[in-house]
Specification:
The complex is a heterodimer. Chain A is an all-alpha fold. In chain A, 74% of the residues lie in helices and 1% in strands. Chain A contains 15 helices and two strands. A two-stranded antiparallel sheet of chain A has the order 1-2. Chain A is globular, with a radius of gyration of 21 Å. The N terminus of chain A is likely disordered. In chain B, the strands form two sheets. Chain B has a six-stranded mixed β-sheet with strand order 6-7-8-3-9-10, with helices on both faces. Chain B has a four-stranded antiparallel β-sheet with strand order 2-1-4-5, covered by helices on one side. In chain B, strand 1 and strand 2 form a beta hairpin. The C terminus of chain B is likely disordered. Helices cover 34% and strands 24% of the residues of chain B. Chain B is of the alpha/beta class. Chain B has ten helices and ten strands. Classes of the chains: A mainly alpha, B alpha/beta. Chains A and B meet through helix 1, helix 10 and helix 11 of A and helix 2 of B.
Chain lengths: 344, 264
């Protein structure tokens, strides 16, 4: 910190007096969103003393957020490439249906561990394949990601409905899966939360400190430069959309574990929730910038709002209103910041 | 005096057509190690096409390119880079959200040793250390190699792009209008850098419209008109009027005009 402040007079020409490290911290999107999250927690804790921020609440919030967090990690990579994936809810349903159908035909709720493992592999494979396929189309550069994944949203859901006749099949999840990943805990921490935390930590590190993450950021920043540097842009995009699909598949396993059903009609707004969380977390919709840590905060803001509003006795639907407003403000600020930086 | 040395990069009778348009009709080009050679010409004279052929972006329809006396045919810019030929693009080709060190090593990242490197973990400290060294070598002052390139000034960004080319080029660097977007002070800085790069034995090919700049920094000037080399001058012995005359065709170069007309 001392080294930073010594540099300050030289680095800060116009705004002398503000230490460099403070100015840099203030430009970190994660910091601002974290302040908002912290303010929410403090507010609800004061407004409902002894009722909010109990161990039960925190656990519940974390469990509810776990699947969105896993999806959000994948979406962070996609949005950093200046892309978008609207299909995640449908891909999750398709993967859940594929895994569920296998489970139904191999023992149903009473199926053994072997079936549990194999149906999980099916869910991951279906998700990855679908995501990678969308990535291939995006990589051609002929159809924008918005349209590719909008098409994917319809097609994946359609296939899931064709396979099931539109009804959630009974016996889609094994009780083994539900009792372990679904409701199981280690040292009081639910497996769902542990799994989401591990996935987040791994891919946070991948984004921040590997060549894969660096190329993802660079593609969102300037695809032409990346191409000229000899990096295969198309192949990287296929991997990024494939990763999103893989995590949607993992989301399907987690969903089956917690709810025991495929919920075919229940995932139509997953995409909007997850994109909102990622953007709230400071990842730029225009690509090139973003972090998994920001997404973690972005996922927890709506989650804390919902629980908090219920606890203080306000209709939880205000959560949707509040998140909607904050989202627009967040993108507005991102735009302004981008403009100022480019002028500098 | 230049002809006493062995040329580093030569082109002979390069032809390139785009449909009915003949962008290059038997263009020649010569560059020697350790010199700054300016490539000038009016709009549509074929400068960009020639540079694209020489840097591997385009493959010629006819003609020959020799690097170090060996005939070469680059399969793409990456192939050219493997031969030590780098390009600084007019738009700089940087990723503005990444820091200077990351840009320097974009596509050629340094990985950690052992298992971590095997799974693609970057050695950021090494990349930053090397970046600081590379900038210092060019005499470029960059306060913070960890700051995003978008926060740098135009001149500093230019320096990052140049440093990237210099760090990996051991033969030729093409620079397309490197000072077009810069202010007076920054322009002087970049030209100083260009000079310093050439002093290291690398050949710098400068594409420019700015005649005073060409005369101040280049050792030699090659003039293209209508897809051919029409003249080549030693910068010290020529004037702006002479260069403009050769570009527009209103007067013939002293030796170069003849030489090119021979078609050899």
């Amino acid at each position: 910190m001392t080294a930073e402040s010594e540099k300050a007079p030289a680095a800060v020409d116009s705004r002398a007096g503000v230490p460099d490290w403070l100015r840099r911290a203030a430009t970190l999107n994660e910091l601002w969103t974290f302040v908002i999250l912290l303010a929410l927690v403090v507010f609800f804790t004061i407004a409902a003393p002894g009722k909010f921020f109990t161990t039960y609440d925190i656990t519940q919030i974390a469990v509810n957020a776990a699947i969105y967090l896993v999806l959000g990690v994948g979406m962070t990579f996609v949005i950093i490439t200046a892309g978008i994936d609207l299909s995640i809810g449908s891909v999750l349903v398709l993967a859940a249906v594929a895994a569920g159908e296998y489970n139904i035909h191999h023992g149903g709720p009473a199926s053994g561990w072997g079936t549990v493992a194999f149906s999980a592999v099916i869910a991951l494979a279906v998700g990855t394949a679908w995501g990678a396929l969308q990535g291939v189309v995006v990589a051609t550069g002929k159809v924008p990601p918005l349209i590719v994944t909008l098409g994917g949203l319809g097609a994946a859901l359609g296939i899931a409905e064709l396979a099931t006749g539109g009804q959630d099949p009974a016996g889609a999840a094994s009780t083994h899966l539900q009792n372990s990943l679904g409701f199981g805990k280690v040292l009081g921490i639910p497996w769902m939360v542990i799994l989401a935390a591990v996935v987040t930590a791994i891919f946070g590190a991948v984004l921040g400190s590997t060549r894969f993450g660096e190329h993802t950021l660079a593609i969102g920043s300037n695809p032409t430069a990346v191409r000229r540097a000899g990096i295969p842009v198309g192949r990287q995009l296929v991997k990024v959309y494939g990763l999103m699909g893989l995590l949607a598949g993992l989301g399907a396993v987690m969903w089956l574990a917690s709810y025991g059903t495929t919920s075919i009609a229940g995932h139509s707004t997953d995409n909007l929730k997850v994109i909102t969380a990622v953007v709230l977390g400071g990842t730029s919709l225009f690509g090139g910038r973003g972090s998994v840590l920001g997404t973690v905060i972005g996922v927890f803001i709506p989650a804390v709002l919902t629980t908090g509003l219920i606890v203080i006795g306000v209709q939880q639907y205000w959560q949707d209103v509040a998140v909607g407003v904050v989202l627009v403000v967040a993108v507005y600020i991102d735009q302004m910041r981008r403009k100022t930086r480019e002028r500098a | 005096m230049a002809s006493a040395r062995e040329p580093l990069l030569t082109a002979h009778g390069v032809v390139k057509r785009f449909g009915h348009v003949q962008a290059l009709s038997g263009a020649d080009f010569t560059a020697y190690p350790g010199e700054v050679v300016a490539l000038i010409g009016d709009n549509g004279a074929g400068k960009s096409t020639l540079v694209n052929v020489l840097s591997g972006v385009l493959s010629p329809d006819a003609g020959e390119v020799r690097l170090d006396g060996e005939p070469v045919r680059f399969s793409g810019p990456m192939d050219a880079q493997r031969h030590g030929v780098e390009t600084v693009y007019q738009d700089l080709s940087l990723a503005p959200d990444l820091d200077a060190a990351a840009n320097l090593y974009l596509g050629r990242e340094i990985l950690r040793g052992g298992l971590l490197g095997r799974i693609g973990v970057l050695d950021r400290p090494a990349m930053r250390r090397e970046a600081v060294r590379a900038f210092a070598e060019l005499g470029v002052e960059l306060k913070d190699v960890t700051a995003a390139v978008t926060t740098l000034s135009g001149g500093q960004r230019q320096s990052v792009a140049v440093a990237r080319a210099v760090a990996f080029a051991h033969k030729v660097i093409f620079m397309d209008e490197p000072t077009a977007a810069l202010g007076v002070v920054q322009r002087a800085r970049v030209l100083e850098t260009v000079r310093r790069v050439a002093d290291r034995g690398i050949c710098v090919v400068l594409i420019s419209h700015n005649m005073p700049e060409v005369l101040s920094v280049a050792d030699r000037v090659e003039v293209l008109r209508l897809g051919r080399r029409v003249a080549s001058y030693t910068a010290a012995d020529t004037t702006i009027e002479e260069l403009v005359g050769a570009m527009t065709g209103s007067l013939d170069g002293p030796n170069g005009g003849k030489e090119a007309e021979d078609g050899r």
